[in-house]
TrEMBL record:
Highest taxon of the lineage: Eukaryota
Keyword Iron-sulfur among record annotations: no
PANTHER family cross-referenced by the UniProt entry: GDSL ESTERASE_LIPASE LTL1 (PTHR45648:SF167), GDSL LIPASE/ACYLHYDROLASE FAMILY PROTEIN (AFU_ORTHOLOGUE AFUA_4G14700) (PTHR45648)
Position of the signal peptide: 1-29
Family: Belongs to the 'GDSL' lipolytic enzyme family.
One GO BP annotation of this record: lipid catabolic process
Protein name, UniProt field: Uncharacterized protein
């Protein structure tokens, strides 16, 4: 049996299991879902802000159910949307959306903001974005609003039983340390010391999430930063991934797993779950054809080498079939690639999910 055929068969089987799982889940009310982080998981908060980090124009959203831009950095659905789908929930509304009121608060909320990082100075060029400390403040404000709706005890329970996703770190490299040659941070820190600093700040953020009531938190490491079309366009001679950025991800991700293990043993429970986004992405980046892509180097939407220069706009090259491209724009995966990533989050082995995958989490949590 060739590998693409066995992949197809196992996808079909897993797809069936996941479908059955989500039907069973829908019998009860879906659990709430909270999302924190950057553009990989922003459902549209930045559309309400005076910033240049926005996905508010065609062709963003071209494959979204409405075929309109929503602020998501995708041709269609993004990672949180597909997780919502899998847990049988409505997609999370951006926290800044005026529609996020009343019963809709029970679904959860999305606090993510494109351009942000672990550090406050990451993404300063985008001006007005919601930095992570502000996202956590909004989470607290959300809980006050939820308490007014369902009472303090109910609100506490909803938050404790919720699923949380946090995606941070990529911008601390691409939109800070490596943004320009001789950046302030790269003059201040050698790369290994910068990573240690980032991780120590990330630990405080995760500890704060726990204080605020989060009890199941998916923490994604960074993807293969050196292999995105933007970095290929800027740093690659023959299409090979940028060594420095791959090295940055290679230092960051294992240390993130270490602090996750440390926090879990401190709180005496598997609260934090590491998702190995690097490995999930590398599978289709290094063998795109096995996953139905024609390329993992050229973005569907963009211009210049690898369609990796500048932004995806109405004036860019646009591929006719987005499902054939691993990257939608110079930095962000296509919906098809996001589906492959969430598939591993759901049912991946220990290579991808530590200490367990989301289907195991759901089975465990439905018994308590
Ligand atoms: C980032 O800014 C917030 C709010 O001003 C502050 O509380 C926090 O300590 C800052 N973080 C760092 C790492 O300086
Ligand atoms: C992940 O999910 C699959 C399918 O539900 C399960 O068989 C497997 O043991 C899980 N792996 C881990 C590491 O939890």
């Amino acid at each position: 049996m060739d590998s693409s055929y066995s992949f197809l068969v196992s996808s079909l089987i897993l797809g069936l299991l996941v479908t059955l799982g989500s039907v069973a889940q829908e019998a009860e009310a879906a659990r709430a879902f909270f999302v924190f982080g950057d553009s990989l998981v922003d459902n549209g908060n930045n559309d309400y802000l005076a910033t240049t980090a926005r996905a508010d124009a065609y062709p963003y959203g071209i494959d979204y159910p409405t075929h309109r831009p929503t602020g998501r950095f995708s041709n269609g659905l993004n990672i949180p949307d597909i997780i919502s789908e899998q847990i049988g929930a409505e997609p999370t509304l951006p926290y800044l959306s005026p529609q996020l009121t009343g019963e809709r608060l029970l679904v959860g909320a999305n606090f993510a903001s494109a351009g942000i990082g672990i550090l406050n100075d990451t993404g300063i060029q985008f001006l007005n974005i919601i930095r992570i400390s502000k996202q956590l403040e909004y989470f607290q404000q959300y809980q006050t609003r939820l308490s007014a709706l369902i009472g303090a005890e109910g609100a506490q329970r909803l938050v404790n039983e919720a699923l949380v996703l946090i995606t941070l770190g990529g911008n601390d490299f691409v939109n800070n340390y490596y943004l320009v040659p001789f950046s302030a941070r790269s003059r201040q820190f050698a790369l290994p010391d910068y990573v240690v600093y980032l991780i120590s700040e990330y630990r405080k953020i995760l500890a704060r999430l726990y204080e605020l009531g989060a009890r199941r938190v998916l923490v994604t490491g960074t993807g293969p930063l050196g292999c995105v079309p933007a970095e290929l366009a800027m740093r690659s001679r023959n299409g090979e991934c940028s060594v420095e950025l791959q090295q940055a991800a290679g230092l960051f991700n294992p240390q993130l797993v270490d602090i996750i293990n440390g926090l879990n043993s401190e709180v005496g429970a598997d609260v934090f779950v590491a998702a190995n986004a690097f490995a999930m992405n590398m599978d289709f980046v290094s063998n795109p054809q096995a996953y139905g892509f024609v390329t993992s180097k050229v973005a569907c939407c963009g211009q210049g080498p690898y369609n990796g220069i500048g932004l995806c706009t109405v004036a860019s090259n646009l591929c006719p079939n987005r499902d054939l491209y691993a990257f939608w724009d110079p930095f962000h995966p296509s919906e098809k690639a996001n589906r492959l990533i969430v598939q591993q989050i759901m049912v991946g082995s220990n290579k991808y999910m530590n200490p367990m995958n989301l289907s195991t989490i759901m089975a465990l949590d439905s018994r308590t």
